[in-house]
Design brief:
- This protein is mostly helical and 216 residues long.
- It folds into 2 domains: 75 residues, no CATH class; 102 residues.
- The protein is built from 9 helices and no strands.
- Helix 7 packs antiparallel against helix 8 and helix 8 packs antiparallel against helix 9.
- It starts with a helix and ends in a 24-residue tail after the last helix.
Length: 216
């Protein structure tokens, strides 16, 4: 066998062994104890690698659905995604928690966290009008269901901020119609503010981050 052929054979064998080793490594990632996946989730969150954390959660869920580590893992992921401003993913995990452990005493807390995620998800008042209205409804529902909640003061603050945002939005649209010579359209938007719980005198000029500032 000449040198060139020997090198090619050696390279082929190397790729074969590397491929086999990788396959074995992949197989070893199955059938792990719940604590193994739980630690992997925690490490991935610490490394800010949320894609891996989500993947390890799927492994934990598929292999150990009834593990006592599941509730904590779900809440870890919900908080981590919220900290990364991934509010839809945070809500996904909070829904997972409520679906599996919704009858527990933590329901009041998880519903507050869902409300907080919706609130912080409002980035642009003009584009997120429906989200503002939906979050107002959620906040009112929360106060009705949990009137004595420790989170009630924060929820009430959220409500006031949302009402202020809605009021300013209607007033700004009305002012735009005034400038473009459409007084009737402006009147419609100002009438929307007639039943508001806030007045223009209650509102100071908003700074950047006005919506979510209460959680800074």
């Amino acid at each position: 066998m000449n040198l060139k052929k020997s090198i090619l054979v050696g390279m082929a064998l190397t790729f074969l062994f590397v491929g086999c080793a990788k396959s074995i490594e992949d197989i070893d990632e199955f059938n792990k104890p719940a604590l193994y996946w739980y630690k992997k989730i925690g490490t991935s969150i610490s490394d800010n690698n949320m894609d891996k954390a989500d993947a390890f959660y799927i492994s934990l869920k598929s292999e150990h659905m009834r593990s006592p580590l599941m509730p904590t893992a779900i809440m870890m992921l919900a908080h981590a995604h919220m900290n990364n401003e991934k509010y839809l993913l945070s809500n996904y995990y909070l829904d997972e928690y409520n679906k599996r452990y919704g009858e527990s005493d933590n329901r009041e807390y998880t519903e507050f966290m869902k409300l907080k995620a919706s609130f912080l998800g409002i980035k642009e008042v003009y584009k997120d009008q429906k989200l503002i209205m939906d979050t107002i409804t959620k906040a009112k529902t929360y106060i009705y269901r949990y009137p004595g909640s420790a989170y009630a003061p924060l929820v009430n603050t959220i409500l006031i901020r949302l009402h202020m945002s809605q009021y300013l939005l209607n007033e700004n649209i009305a002012a735009l119609y005034d400038r473009t010579g459409k007084p009737e359209a402006a009147k419609i938007y100002r009438e929307k503010n007639n039943g508001s719980v806030v007045e223009m005198t209650d509102i100071t000029a908003p700074e950047k981050g006005f919506i979510g500032k209460i959680f800074d």
